[in-house]
Amino acid sequence: MASLPRKRMAAGVLFRSSDGRVLLVEPSYKPNWEIPGGAVEADESPWAAAARELLEELGTERPLGRLLVVDHVHPYDGRPDAMVFVFDGGVVTDADVAAFTFSDGEILSAGLYTLAQTRTLGKPMLAARLEAAVEAVEEGIVALCEHGKRVA
User: Fold this and answer.
1) What's the pTM value of the predicted model, to 2 decimals?
2) Which residue, of 63, 97, 106, 148, has the fewest CB within 10 Å?
C-alpha cells in the first residue's frame, strides 16, 4: 500500500448572489483570493472538509448542497497533483456576507464579485473553475475539470 500513488485533496464551497456574483475570501497568508475551503485532512471526507472550513474561515455552519465540480489539478510549483471538489453553498445576500466572522486571522475579508473580477483577484485556474461551477449550477450537472478548465 505504501507504494501506491498519493494525491492531495481540497474542497471548497461556491456561494453566489441572486445577481450572479460569487463569494471570494481574502486569505492573510497569500496574495490570491479563494473560495471558502481548504485541504482535506487525513481520514476526512471532502464534504466534511468543506463544512469544517466554512466554520473555521467564515464562522458559519451551513448545509452543503450538491457536488458541482471535480477538478484534477496537475503538478505545479513543486506540488504534486491534486483533486479539488467544489460544493454548492447556495445563494447568499450582502447581509449574509457581512455577518461572516473571521476569528482565527486566516481570512481578512470576504465579498461578492463578478466572474470577471475573479480573474484579477484569484488565480486563472480558480476563475476557470468558478465558471465551470456556475455552469454546473445552471445545467444541473457535475462539471469535470482539468487544471480548472472544464472538460466535461
Assistant:
1) 0.96
2) 63
